[in-house]
Every structure is written in structure tokens, then in C-alpha cells.
Amino acid sequence: MDEVRVKSVLNKHRRRDSWFLDDYSVNPYYGCQFSCIYCYIRGGKYTRKPNELAAKINAPEVLDRQLRRRASRKEYGFIALGTSTEPYMKVERELEITRKVLGVISHYRFPAHVLTKSTLVTRDSDLLLEVADRALLPTDLKGRVSGALVTISMSTVDEELAKFLEPGAPPPSERFEALERLREEGIEVGVAFIPVIPFLSDGEDELRRAIREAKDRGANYVFVGALTLSGDLKRSFLRALEVRFPELVGEYRKIFRGGYPSREYQDGLHSTAMTICMDEGVRLRILGR
Ligand code: SF4
């Protein structure tokens, strides 16, 4: 893996993300080894492609400098790890960049939200508990959420389908085991079913099975989000679909006129997810009912 030195690693958002609650994001790596066929990095929006891997080797020192300044101005807010790449790829076991980044976040008392598909996140439960303990939350979030959140993402709970959709990631069953372990250790956890895949994992029965399992394994909340297919990603996704599920390609062309599925599709998905979450007694989104 390439190692690169960066000048900045902390991205400040214009406004807080209403789903993930982050005001900042940090991505310790470029690219990703998990090779999900729906990966947004393939859309061409990012400078590097998913198979161009690099570790931001000086990320902890750069973050230290950037957070020192933010903390001195009391600009506290959730820092999301893993918004544009996976923070716990296999190389992290050896490089420990994400672990050091969490140490810096804890030192400056910022809250953190880790988004991952990897079971390696359980290695850092000690630090996540420390972050939760020390974090200074923005005033409007105090008492509503823990200072450390871990959201494990998956697009299906079907192990065979997952091999096709997310060939490099741990199987969903192992991700659920990681979730269970983190919850047992006292960390606030959730599952992001993002994206669910039209005609493959977005049906009411599949979603109910997935949400029920998330709840049974300890999820405090779930997310359900639609697939988006823009730029090069649309072409590569449809090529993969053509090989495995050729009968679905025409249906996809009907739903995806541009990069987004139709409004009707999105509203239907949201309403199904909401009904299931109410039935199953789990929150849809972190601050949901
Ligand atoms: S784990 Fe995330 S970043 Fe990595 S390939 Fe999958 S969707 Fe892309």
C-alpha cells in the first residue's frame, strides 16, 4: 500500500449531517479493499479509485494540529470516520492509523461516529469507550446520544448475496457478531442498511428480516437508504448485474432515470422502513422514534 503525507485530514461540513450527526469527517485512507459493487467511490467524484489504496500516514499528527485549534474555539461536534472509505481495512491491523486518530479525538474530547463494514472495529472498543466518556457534545445533542457511535453497514443479511455485492467485506453474520460484542461492552451501535438493493434486498420481507436481526443483536438504531448510481458507477454496476441477474437490468433502467431512484421508490422505501421499525420497536435513524 502507498503511504502519503497530507496537509489536512479534517473536513468541516457546512452543516451537520441530519442522519449521521457529524459536523466533521476524517478518512485515514484513500481507496478501499472491500470492493463493493455499489461503492460510491466508483462514481468518479473522488480523485482516487477504489483500487488505488493509500494510507494517510501522518493523519494523526495533522489531526492533532487541526483539532487543537477547533477545541480552543470550543467548536465541538461529531467526527465521522469512514464517510468516503473504510477506516478498518485489513491494513489497519498493522498500521493503526484509525486507532491513533481515535486517540487524538479522545484527547481533544470530540465525539466520534465510526461507520464501518469491518469486524476489526472491535479491537478499538477500549478507545471508543474512552471517547464516549470524555466527549463534549454540542448543546442540542446532550443527553440524547452517546459520545461514541458505531454504525455497521450492510446492504443485505443474505450471506450469498453479500458475496456478490460486497466481495471483500466480512460476511454479514460476522458483522452482526461485532455489533453484538460492541453493544455488550457498552457502546451505542446501529446498522446502516445503506444501500438496500432494488429487487434483491429492498422487499418488505427482506427488510423485516434484516431490521429484526439488527434489533435482536443489539442495535440501538437502524438506517435504511436507497442505492444511488451515478457516473461510472452506474455502468459498472449494471455490467455486474447483467452477469448475475440479467432479468433485472430492464427494471433498473426504469427506476434509475438519472443517478437517483424515482421519488416514488424512495418514499415507498422510507414508509416501509418506518412501519417495520415501529413494529419491531427499533429507532429509524439515531434520533428517531
Ligand atoms: S466498504 Fe465502503 S468504501 Fe469500501 S468498497 Fe464498500 S462501500 Fe466502498
Structural overview:
The protein is α/β, with parallel strands linked by helices and 289 residues long. It has one domain: Aldolase class I (TIM Barrel). Helices cover 38% and strands 17% of the residues. It contains ten helices and eleven strands. Strands 2-3-6-7-8-9-10-11 form an eight-stranded mixed β-sheet. Strands 1-5-4 form a three-stranded mixed β-sheet, with no helix packed on it. Strand 7, helix 4 and strand 8 form a beta-alpha-beta unit. Helix 3 runs parallel beside helix 4. It is globular, with a radius of gyration of 19 Å. It starts with a strand and ends in a 5-residue tail after the last strand. The mean pLDDT is 95. Iron/sulfur cluster (SF4) binds next to loops.
Query: Could you tell me the radius of gyration in angstroms?
Result: 19 Å
Helix/strand-derived class?
Answer: alpha/beta
- Bulk shape: globular
Low-pLDDT segments: none
Strand tally: 11
List keywords for this structure.
10 helices; 38% helix; TIM Barrel; 11 strands; 289 residues; alpha/beta; binds iron/sulfur cluster; eight-stranded mixed β-sheet; three-stranded mixed β-sheet
List the helices and strands and how they pair.
Layout: E1 2-4, E2 10-12, E3 22-26, E4 29-30, E5 54-56, H1 59-72, E6 78-81, H2 92-95, H3 97-107, E7 112-116, H4 125-134, E8 148-153, H5 159-165, H6 172-184, E9 188-196, H7 204-216, E10 221-226, H8 231-244, H9 249-255, H10 263-280, E11 283-284
Parallel strand pairs: 1-5, 3-6, 6-7, 7-8, 8-9, 9-10, 10-11
Antiparallel strand pairs: 2-3, 4-5
Iron/sulfur cluster (SF4) binds at residues 32, 34-36, 39, 41, 50, 85-86, 117, 169.
